[in-house]
Amino acid sequence: MKTKTNYLALFALIFTIGLNAQNYDQRLLQVYSAERLQQIEQNAPGSIDYLNFYVRNSYQFIERPEGKEIETKELRFVNIQTGAEMSFDLTEADLRNFNPMLFNCRPGENHTYYSIGSSNKILMMLSQKEIERRYKLHIEQQKL
Q1: Alpha-carbon distance 75 to 125, whole Å?
Q2: Which residues of the chain have pLDDT under 50?
Q3: Domain of 144?
Q4: Structural domains in the chain (count)
């Protein structure tokens, strides 16, 4: 009897985690465990929605304009465990599944530009104010 109860409890826990994981952009699971994301949502409701928005909308990829100099930093991959940074060439698949939380790009007071390896693409990280403005619009649109 105890075994059945334990299995049911375990199944319910796994099912709940599975349902909640579906609310997360999969890129968040590259940085946080599903359990940690649940804790974040419990401690700060709405945070997961913001994190989802952030990994989807805090940046844009643009082509390096010809004849115009843009001051850029080098985009570098950051090892989550060690904090070590390394150069990185992004493929087209990497661009489609880009996770800004895995790189040295962070929003600042102004848009910040990052060169991407040897490619002709530039990552434009939006300013914190612009991300917040867009997030507020996103929240207003969800209420409609």
Answers
A1: 11
A2: 4-21
A3: 58-144
A4: 2
